[in-house]
Amino acid sequence: MSHKAILLLSGGLDSYTAGAMARADGYELYALTIRYGQVHAREIEAARLVAKALDVTRHLELDVPLSRIGGSALVGDGAIPKDRDLDALDIPSTYVPARNTVFLSLAMAWAEVVGAEVVVIGVNALDYSGYPDCRPEYLRAFERLAALATKAGVEGRSLTVLAPLVSLTKADIIRKGLALGADYGLTLSCYDPDAAGRPCGRCDSCHLRARGFSEAGAVDPAAG
Q1: How far is CA 172 from CA 8, 83, 167, 176, 211, in A?
Q2: Average pLDDT in the chain
Q3: Other beta carbons less than 10 A from residue 169's beta carbon
């Protein structure tokens, strides 16, 4: 009998790799993609392609318009920052308030319905932009919340938040994915792609991706 997992799938490199790793570990995947009003909405198309590549059991797309709350360049509040110092300690304007908490809550709800014991999320605490909801201590806190907030938790069926990339560098993530046969040409990481979906090459996500491929000694098939 296969174990079920909810995969939070954005259409980017990290969530694809996390899903490929969970799939290789024998999980039956249920992919959840959120349209939250992101300015890079073309990532939804990429998520559909990645879901097919991962052969998920079901791909659910939900509309949760965090753009109506605002507070982030990713939902149209200000310009996407370009050529930022990736070693800066400040939290960038692309941070979306409470996004991972909202996403994990939705995944937790679906996990109860389908009987999944795991939620897979592609967060990373090394090569990332400094978002507070990507840290291991946050993920452990959410697991404690899930144990208290759900019928499954009360009945002793705990939910695990699986973040297989959390302590990996971007280069290691890419190496892992390539070893598992991931086609990164399907993915979109850019925060500010053009109308044709071509990456800007200058946002944090583009810089992190380019550095990762370079350090991994690999060629990015999605590079312009």
Answers
A1: 20, 23, 10, 6, 11
A2: 94
A3: 17
Q: What is the DSSP string of 161-187?
A: EE-TTTT--HHHHHHHHHHTT--GGG-
CA 149 to mean position of chain CA atoms: 23
Q: Is the pTM of this model over 0.85?
A: yes
DSSP string, 95-125: --TTHHHHHHHHHHHHHHHHT--EEE----S
Residue corresponding to tokens 């070893």 = 179
Distance from C-alpha of 175 to C-alpha of 212, rounded to nearest angstrom: 9
- Measured in whole angstroms, the distance separating CA 112 from the mean position of its chain's CA atoms is 21
Q: pLDDT tens digits, residue range 99-112?
A: 999 999 999 999 99
Specify the residue for token string 């990762």: 212
If one counts every other C-beta atom within 10 angstroms of the C-beta of residue 115, the result is 10
What the chain holds in terms of domains, given with CATH numbers, is: 3-216 (3.40.50.620)
